[in-house]
Known about the structure:
Elements: H1 6-13, H2 22-26, E1 31-35, E2 41-45, H3 51-60, E3 65-66, E4 74-76, E5 80-82, E6 84-90, H4 93-98, H5 104-114, E7 120-126, E8 134-139, H6 142-147, H7 162-166, E9 172-175, H8 178-190, H9 193-197, E10 200-204, H10 212-221, E11 229-233, E12 243-247, E13 252-255, H11 257-265, H12 271-274, E14 286-290, E15 293-294, E16 300-301, E17 309-313, H13 316-327, E18 331-335, H14 338-344, H15 346-364, E19 371-372, H16 377-407
Parallel strand pairs: 3-19, 7-9, 9-10, 10-14
Antiparallel strand pairs: 1-2, 4-5, 6-17, 6-18, 7-8, 11-12, 12-13, 14-17, 15-16
Helix pairs in contact: 15-16
The chain binds flavin-adenine dinucleotide.
Flavin-adenine dinucleotide binds at residues 99-106, 123-125, 134, 148-153, 156, 158, 175-177, 204-207, 209, 236, 288-290, 307, 309, 347.
Amino acid sequence: xxxxxxxxxxxxxxxxxxxxxxxxxxxxxxxxxxxxxxxxxxxxxxxxxxxxxxxxxxxxxxxxxxxxxxxxxxxxxxxxxxxxxxxxxxxxxxxxxxxxxxxxxxxxxxxxxxxxxxxxxxxxxxxxxxxxxxxxxxxxxxxxxxxxxxxxxxxxxxxxxxxxxxxxxxxxxxxxxxxxxxxxxxxxxxxxxxxxxxxxxxxxxxxxxxxxxxxxxxxxxxxxxxxxxxxxxxxxxxxxxxxxxxxxxxxxxxxxxxxxxxxxxxxxxxxxxxxxxxxxxxxxxxxxxxxxxxxxxxxxxxxxxxxxxxxxxxxxxxxxxxxxxxxxxxxxxxxxxxxxxxxxxxxxxxxxxxxxxxxxxxxxxxxxxxxxxxxxxxxxxxxxxxxxxxxxxxxxxxxxxxxxxxxx
Length: 408
Ligand SMILES: Cc1cc2nc3c(=O)[nH]c(=O)nc-3n(C[C@H](O)[C@H](O)[C@H](O)COP(=O)(O)OP(=O)(O)OC[C@H]3O[C@@H](n4cnc5c(N)ncnc54)[C@H](O)[C@@H]3O)c2cc1C
């Protein structure tokens, strides 16, 4: 007999859902993803889950739990496992320009395809019918990868296609947010086909997923209605590149990246991302990020320049790929120190260090928290010190308490 899909309801109600789509892929007859009113993609029950489906969802869902990534050559308290840290860019100028930072991620995908190491790439592109939204795409050529380059700050559910691809004979590179890749790694522990079909798992640093309503507000600020949007580019076309809206009547309007992300999109990040232990792609073979230059106060400078990506090879397989892509002349890479990485990514540093305090604050306010195992949160909190941890704890408890009192 089937069970009511209460694991889905509970995860969504507790604001733990990341929107990855794994549950709907594992139980398509019982769970469907939909765009909720708040502008996030969420699962909903459409049928009864079996006991075994519930067990699998519980084991794979990255919103409910995340566990330690595979060991690597070094394990840094803040940055996690890594084999090599470098910065670099695509040697293909068009990819470098189109990418969010240095196009290194897209270049890696093109090189993997052109050297027949994978048959396809699962990643995210603009939705064909709703240009502010995302859709999953399977790219097989350079031009398809190029079309999907650059970050899209809106919800996406890339794990939705995994179950179907497991039924094929192909080998794919998977690109997803750190939580998507964590979910795929959990899945690999449950089903040996995952590692065969997805020999390469790539991710990027992630400050969180904004609601799709955020993009609509960006368009609104530019005086464009949703129905008038023909093309919506969040960034890219330079570093960081402009946020650009093209309308059906051929006009293009734009906004600086620091305005769209900083003022409009980042305040709309989903709650689950605010208690995320892994904005740095801990489970990926390679994690990419912006190699920002920072000013004297440690804030990233967003002046336009040629793009540069952080390239953080975590696994032995990731290290081999970076080295071979560099040797083949596809990728430029130069060493980057941990101190330089820390200076480039002040937001991620603060978030990792404060997370234990934030989780304690949420617990204090009586709300469930994700189960994190082996993600180095105590080591990060030690770096923050007692005062910063307590401040994060009390600040979170207060915010949660006020929000729930307001809603009740
Ligand atoms: C929601 C979000 C938050 C981010 N936060 C940070 C941050 O805090 N710090 C930081 O340094 N970098 C962040 N990034 C990553 C950064 O913007 C670049 O992706 C990264 O620097 C790699 O750049 P690149 O030029 O090498 O990648 P590109 O060559 O531009 O390749 C990007 C790849 O990511 C895929 N992609 C785009 N949007 C999504 C999405 N929503 N979900 C899954 N895949 C997607 C594309 O399909 C493409 O394959 C974030 C990206 C996203 C999508």
